[in-house]
Amino acid sequence: MTGSVGAPAERREGREKVGGTARYAAEFHAPGRAQAWPVPAGVARGRVTGVDTADALAVPGVLAVLSHENAPRLAEPDDPTLAVLQNARVPHRGWFVALVVAETLEAARAGAAAVRVTYDVEEHDVALSVSHPGVYVPEEANGGHPAVREQGDPDEAFGSAAARVDVAYRVPPLHNHPMEPHASTARWVDGRLTVHTSSQGTGVVRATLAALFGLPQERIVVTAEHVGGGFGSKGTPRPDVVLAAMAARHTGRPVTVSLPRRHLPAVVGHRAPTLHRLRLGADADGRLGSVVHEVTTHTSRIKEFVEQAAVPARVMYAAPHTRTVHRVAALDVPSPSWMRAPGEAPGMYALESAMDELAAELGMDPIELRVRNEPDVEPDSGKPFSSRNLVACLREGARRFGWAGRDPRPGTRREGPLLLGTGVAAASYPVMVAPSAATAHARPDGTFLVRINATDIGTGARTVLAQVGADALGVPLERVRIEVGSTELPPASLAGGSSGTASWGWAVHEACALLARRLAEHPGPLPAQGLDVRADTRGAADAESDFARHAFGAHFAEVAVDTVTGEVRVRRLLGVYAAGRVLNARTARSQFVGGMTMGLGMALTEGSTMDAAFGDFTESDLASYHVPVHADIAEIDAHWLDEEDSRLNPMGSKGIGEIGIVGTAAAIGNAVHHATGVRLRELPLSPDRVLTGLLDRRVPGAV
């Protein structure tokens, strides 16, 4: 073994990115390339009755205007959000009703502004509430999870519990907003389609385009050479890639569609709002007898997507009586979709906040409460855990954070107008693995080429996979080259669900280990063409496991709350994780810290409002939707345990891309309560909400 795995190797594409030579989907220039700009619907529900294109076509440089009246016909998609420009229906505000294609981006934008669309407007409903008459219980929540799970008699157990909390939490709509907006460049040549797209999985894009345009997949090539983030919003094809292919076919020229940021909330998914009710009942020693987590969320009228926010309560703590329920209302809203740690991020915020409230009700340390409710097996399935080191994360985090010196009484630490407090929360994220294939090639010069259709969305996948390959081959890292990001490579799963490295690394490890054995058996020098092997993990990576597989973590936060302005500043943020074998210390730390930063945004700055009158997200760009910036982040640190788990994959690794966000918001909210004595149950904890809470409680210094 070379020791490549685990080392803090620098990103292989780093110099390209900082030097500006890394090409993204909108940067693939071709002779005659045109630019396109979409026209969003200006009503929240109805039908298009007319599309006047005369003024748009008169704009110099405009080549065409596509609408449902003249756009290429598509086969009916499995995903209704991709049926763009196919009919007159407007299911929500922002739905694309036209596309202007022009010589330049400026001309396309001007042409789009000149298109005149008329509508037959219908009444709309976008307001979510627990009592909405359209709320129903679906068959499943996301990921195939049953919408309802019940064990024992949780209502009776709650009613007879010595300590009880019955609380409601609200998480607003949240938006992914990757640095690179969704973009695609498409080109048709002799009935073959080539697409450069910003996607988390080119294989899924190719299959979707093949079905829509009635082509064999072999006649389509999709590449994603570099992707500027996605956070789940690029996990499935979006309208940009379909529009680019349609416009390229219509005009006979290469076409780029790069979605304006203000359009993203309406067409690329969002984290749906979730309304939570938690009822926890425990005995006097803090052992849970009853856990009830009920979630109400929204979906669109064209596609059911149910945020699985009650699922974490099924696996976190031991309780004999439990009920978890998902309810959903279909409204005239954009279709929600994947966002970093879907289900776990909002669900664990509510659960871990309620656990903090129960600890206060019991007069118990919140870490000790969690330790006392540690299960022996996964409560939902009854399976043993492949590994579960949550308690070790809590203990190590407490040591590093200095938790032992904490005064548990709220509102006791003060620096002038600032109230100081600390909070803790647990985190969990499931281990997911999907089948993938990889090839490994040995060259006569002693170098190696590994090829796999993985997607590097900014996580350092190229680097980590090279480390896995070098380790399996027993050679120095610099002798291994990696090719990723194209459907011309061996097929692989998409980058999502914290499953990418575990899935692709498994295939890479198998291919390189097989190649190493072949080389050991090969007599004499290699032939000029080298030596090739292929590995496919179908049947192994997708096999049912006898174990419950999860990553775990503990988050600690220290906050300062300004009693004059209501502003919350996070002074310290610490995460300690048990995520199997860490394959690259540098990129792993980046992922953990990135997730924690996103969790800080969820807690303090990020939130979207659905305007009831207009049926639109009010905060639709980065001027109004506030993501954390450097000034918002003080001391933030991530550590991990050396966790050995042989029941995962050949590397012993768990996903790390999402667990960092999961418990952060709850830790910060719990710290705000410890600082002020005020319990705020709606995110984000913005200055107006904090100050209102301080004034209502008559906290000294609040004005």
Task: Summarize this structure as a short list of keywords or feature phrases.
globular; seven-stranded mixed β-sheet; 703 residues; five-stranded mixed β-sheet; 25% helix
Which sequence of strands runs across the widest sheet? 3-5-1-14-11-12-13
Total count of strands: 28
Structural class: alpha+beta
- Global Rg: 26 Å
Low-confidence segments, given as residue ranges, are: none
Which outline best applies?
globular
* Total number of helices: 16
Percent of residues in beta strands: 25-35%
Biggest pleated sheet: 7 strands, mixed
Mean pLDDT: 97
Query: Helicity range of the residues?
Result: 25-40%
Distance between the termini: 64 Å
Explain what you see.
With 703 residues, the chain is α+β, with helices and mostly antiparallel strands. The chain is 25% helix and 25% strand. The protein is built from 16 helices and 28 strands. The strands form seven sheets. The protein has a seven-stranded mixed sheet with strand order 3-5-1-14-11-12-13. Strand 24 and strand 25 (568-578) form a beta hairpin. Helix 8 runs parallel beside helix 15, helix 11 packs parallel to helix 12 and helix 13 (585-604) packs across helix 15. The longest helix is centred in the C-terminal third of the chain and has 22 residues, at 500-521. The chain is globular, with a radius of gyration of 26 Å. The mean pLDDT is 97.
